Hints:
The chain is of the alpha/beta class. It has helices spanning about 10-20, 35-40, 50-60, 70-75, 100-105, 125-140, 160-165, 180-185, 185-190, 200-230, 235-245, 265-280, 280-310, 335-345, 360-365, 375-380, 395, 400-405, 420-425, and strands at about 1-5, 25-30, 65, 80, 115-120, 145-150, 170, 195-200, 320, 350-355, 370, 385-390, 410-415, 430. It folds into two domains: about 1-200, NAD(P)-binding Rossmann-like Domain (Rossmann fold), CATH 3.40.50; about 205-433, NAD(P)-binding Rossmann-like Domain (Rossmann fold). Uridine-5'-diphosphate-xylopyranose binds near residues 153 and 155.
Amino acid sequence: MRMVVLGLGYLGATHAACMAELGHEVLGIEVVPEKRAQLAAGEVPFYEPGLPDLLKRHIETGQLRVSDSYAEAADFADVFFIAVGTPQKKGEYSADLTYVDAAVEELVPLLTRDALILGKSTVPVGTSRRLSERADELAKDIDVEVAWNPEFLREGFAVKDTLHPDRVVVGAFPGGIAETACREIYASMINEGTPFIVTDPPTAELVKTSANAFLATKISFINAIAEVCDAAGADVKSIADAIGYDARIGRKFLNAGLGFGGGCLPKDIRAFMARAGELGAAEALTFLREVDNVNMRRRTRMVELTREVCGGSLLGKRIAILGAAFKPESDDVRDSPALNVAGQIQLQGASVTVYDPKAMPNSKRLFPTLDYAEAASEACESADVVLVLTEWAEFVALNPVELGRRVRQRKIIDGRMCLDRRNWTVAGWDYRA
Ligand code: UDX
């Protein structure tokens, strides 16, 4: 099938390349010239395992093309995916829908045939209805259907999650073609047995927000338990393992530590709070606010712990920070807990040196005043304390004996509970988590 993907960020670029992989003919629209040039040359402007190969292959065969022209898009296909960003509004909790709205405003007046717009971006409940009404106003003697088809991909596993998702959800208004079109688009996965769930658009919008809110809740739950464990001298990791065996609970997303960050979970739960507030659903608002609070307290707690380990003051101390990306296998530093902690520690008078295997360029752009090292060992040179804040395999594999020769004091704080405590203590380190 021919299709257009509007917006080629993490979501759009992955979706476009994966749709080409499924055999569809895809035109991707990206308005940022540098990004567009890179993508058109078959290069991915961010780190995502597996995506460069896929993109390059389909750009070379012509199965996937990249353009900035909405006129070309309108002419090319009758199915349009919206995959533009929905960031948090500045100084507010709600989602900024400028890019989603702009996509509809620009595209629909150019359409000359009936069309289907499938939203993939994460949006507040009610957005499909509003866009559908707007599309009706803008459409010239044609039918433009709007439906929502949320995306659940994780960074680092984006290709796998897109090609082999846990489920496909389509939120369609009655009487349209969205369900039939999606059955054709995703035929290969449906044939593999992937659950295909058809709902109305508000439900589909809420499926996505609820999924992210639940994942955030799981992480904050285990982090709230971790606070109790700290106070009681218990081991949160063993608790997570033990409760995780209960199939109703499950072990995934119960890793305690520095908490969640990134371009999705934090802004999505805040947008959900804002929307719940607008709708008068006070329980959801209060509940999610506490999920957010627990999460943000983890960052402050890490700063306090570092200060404690430094003997009460950070002034003049050398702190090595291993990890800057919001999670491993990513170069994304949006709302990164690691960089947030690095910034707070620096503000309290310490000298902070950061190393990350993939996120150095993005970190330098966002926090230019921090010091950066080319390797983990270099970052740890003469450090008073080493903080592991992203659980990259490279850090898990560090040799405590070798690193012990580099530092001023053998003190390590494992912000992701990913290191083998015994190995570090045997090598003479004061290990805290
Ligand atoms: C998330 C959702 O998982 C995905 O379904 C949705 O489409 C987008 O948002 P992503 O942002 O890629 O994906 O990251 P995810 O793997 O969910 O991790 C989010 C954050 O939670 C990371 O900072 C991670 O370190 C943290 N986390 C995760 C924990 O602190 N503990 C855990 O047990 C799991």
